[in-house]
Amino acid sequence: MVVFLSLLLDLLAFTMILPLLPSLLDYYAQHDKGDGWYSMLQSGVNHFREFLGIPDTERYNSVLFGGIIGSLFSFLQFVASPVIGAASDVYGRRPLMMLTMVGITSSYVMWALSHNFQLFVLARIVGGISKGNVSLSTTIVTDVSTRKTRGKGMAMIGISFSLGFIVGPMIGALFARSAAAQGGAFYVQPALFALFLAAADVLFVYMYLDETLPEEKRAQSFGNSFKEAQNLINPVSLFCFSAVKKTTKKDMSMLRLLGFIYFLYLFIFSGLEFTLTFLVHKRFQYTSIQQGRMFVFMGLIMALVQGGFVRRIKPGKEKRMAVMGMVILMPSFLMIANATTTTLFYAGLALFAFASASVVPCMTTLVSVYGSADQKGTIMGIFRSLGALSRAFGPVVSSAVYWAYGASTCYITGSILLIFPLLLFTMVKPQKMD
After folding, report:
1. Which of 3, 273, 424, 429 is deepest in the core (most CB within 10 A)?
2. In angstroms, rounded to a whole number, what is the distance separating the alpha carbons of residues 47 and 14?
3. Which has the closest alpha carbon to 117: 27, 18, 14?
4. Residue 44's Cα: distance from chain center in Å?
5. What is the pLDDT confidence band of residue 319, given thresholds at 50, 70 and 90?
6. Can you tell me the distance from the alpha carbon of 112 to that of 362, in angstroms, rounded to the nearest whole number?
7. 257 and 403 in contact (C-beta within 8 Å)?
8. What span, in angstroms and rounded, lies between the C-alpha atoms of 38 and 136?
9. Whole-prediction pTM value?
10. Exposure string for 138-166, b = 16+ CB within 10 A, e = fewer
11. Residue 187: which of 19, 383, 358 has the closest Cα?
12. 238 φψ region: left (φ > 0), alpha (ψ -120 to 50), beta (else)
């Protein structure tokens, strides 16, 4: 419950900024100097937009700009998560959790002071590097749960994400609504509110989170967890889980297979998720408010599925549930590709949300059973890192396909490509229940 509440506070603060991005970008466009970072990044966005033939509209520019910042954030998570996870195997979960959350809190201080775009980007960089608290949360759940109860714990983490992505943007939307009337540095109030939530989270964790990795079970030195530094930053080494030792050849083979399936699935999923904003604006002329309602609809379904279904999955059935989620996602993409009415679109969106709620928690549970206690942080950090890498590049590739060949081709292609992670899943042989 401590991990659930901590993640919920963290995600409320994190997702608040989403509805504010268009207003923030407008503010920095007006206040950044001609030779500033904003102008430099805008030039890159313009070249990318012109290359793909994306219409030059304010809304599309905001989506692309936000996508680039989001990709940067995901890439930093890719770099930091394995290092933080491995460090927690040496020093314990609690000190690293406190460190990451202090870093997140610092990023909101920088946001509140970000009178220019450079400081805003630096705030996002600090936040991205510090976001290892999510992988640490899954590791803590792994530490304190048994094989029989672990799936329920991972589902609770999923519920915190769903609730955070429902309520957080609503809070941000309230600030965004008053942004135009305020003028000036309107971002200060939401940044201070995010800072308040983050500071409360730090205090909550300090008071109530106990250490879950006893000293006698920890890696004895960096030599155990950081055998070679490149194993934690080299993408090839991460896909190979090279930093993980003391495991059988069979288990290592399964870890690598699950890691690759996870990357491939999220590469497809996150890319098409990103293009939803383009699709509904172009096909249905959705406003920002209507798009917000769309994401609330998805979040509610995800919370219901995770709370009422995924957390009740019997141990050993996680593979079947993950496969089911991927299978359901295929018709979802086809329905979205061919939807000419909002009814059909929302039906596809419901299946999309079901898959989102089921696949990742189940795959996380499958991975969490591998490795000894002093390697769990490393394993979960690497696993989280591969997901962040897919989210860094998936939206770029999907955007290119979307604007080069159209929405229908993009989503139909995504549906077909899901065959590959599904086929690979047939090779997965989960560990038997303890």
Report:
1. 3
2. 29
3. 27
4. 24
5. very high
6. 37
7. no
8. 33
9. 0.85
10. bbbbbbbbeeeebbbbbbbbbbbbbbbbb
11. 19
12. alpha
